[in-house]
């Protein structure tokens, strides 16, 4: 066999060997694995504020107050049988949120404390007293302490107090004659209607006692 014949034979044998090594069936493409994504776990929104039911139940359990005889005007003529202290958020955008607006409690109350007769007499005696004032209040007003008085579960009086800015407002209003007058060199004067340090110290003492936030 000449060299040309041997080369042709080798090519034929190589082709046969290569064909024998190839798969007899086309490979089946693997099906993509479908991984179904799990839905996110439902989130529970925090409920930082007390519900109307919680507020009503606490008011129902509050002690009924007998006629108190050691109250400063104008509370000495006010008819009420229960009183509550509230820790609440009093900022409403750029405005203040009072503890009572349009006859209803603020919806931002985080804690509450029923008051007994001794508490009421001490609180009214502190705030409706000339010795409670004398400092210059800040321009801000973001109250966090509310005091509400009830008669047969209806609101009859309330106070909104901002300790950090030394101011309070409410109904009935603090009589203007309780504010010391600061006289200026030009002969004019203005009322120093900010709560003084002694008063703020006592208010903070009550906040700690009631486990309220302190500001």
Radius of gyration: 39 Å
Total domains? 1
Strand proportion, as a percent range, falls in: 15-25%
List low-pLDDT spans.
Answer: 2-21
Alpha-carbon distance between the two ends = 111 Å
Structural commentary:
With 215 residues, the chain is an alpha+beta fold. It has four helices and 13 strands. The strands form five sheets. Strands 6-1-8-9-10 form a five-stranded antiparallel β-sheet, with helices on one face. It has a two-stranded antiparallel ribbon with strand order 2-3.
What's the helix and strand layout?
Layout: H1 3-21, H2 52-61, E1 82-88, E2 91-92, E3 95-96, E4 100-101, E5 104-105, E6 109-114, H3 117-127, E7 133-135, E8 145-151, E9 154-162, E10 167-171, E11 181-183, E12 189-191, E13 194-195, H4 197-210
Antiparallel strand pairs: 1-6, 1-8, 2-3, 4-5, 7-13, 8-9, 9-10, 11-12
What brief labels describe this structure?
single chain, 215 residues, alpha+beta, two-stranded antiparallel ribbon, 25% helix, 25% strand, disordered N terminus
Outline:
This protein has 215 residues and is an alpha+beta fold.
């Amino acid at each position: 066999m000449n060299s040309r014949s041997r080369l042709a034979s080798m090519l034929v044998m190589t082709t046969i060997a290569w064909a024998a090594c190839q798969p007899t069936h086309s490979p089946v493409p693997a099906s993509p694995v479908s991984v179904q994504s799990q839905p996110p776990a439902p989130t529970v929104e925090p409920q930082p504020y007390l519900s109307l039911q919680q507020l009503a139940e606490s008011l129902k359990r509050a002690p009924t107050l007998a006629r108190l005889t050691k109250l400063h005007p104008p509370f000495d003529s006010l008819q009420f049988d229960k009183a509550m202290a509230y820790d609440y958020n009093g900022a409403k955008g750029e405005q203040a949120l009072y503890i009572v607006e349009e006859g209803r409690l603020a919806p931002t109350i985080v804690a509450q404390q029923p008051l007994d007769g001794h508490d009421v007499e001490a609180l009214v005696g502190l705030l409706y007293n000339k010795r409670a004032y004398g400092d210059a209040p800040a321009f801000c007003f973001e109250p966090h302490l509310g005091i509400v008085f009830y008669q047969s579960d209806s609101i009859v009086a309330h106070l909104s107090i901002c300790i950090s800015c030394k101011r309070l407002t409410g109904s009935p209003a603090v009589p203007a004659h309780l504010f010391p007058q600061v006289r200026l060199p030009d002969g004019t004067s203005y009322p120093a209607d900010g709560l003084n340090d002694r008063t703020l110290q006592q208010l903070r003492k009550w906040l700690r006692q009631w486990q309220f936030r302190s500001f």
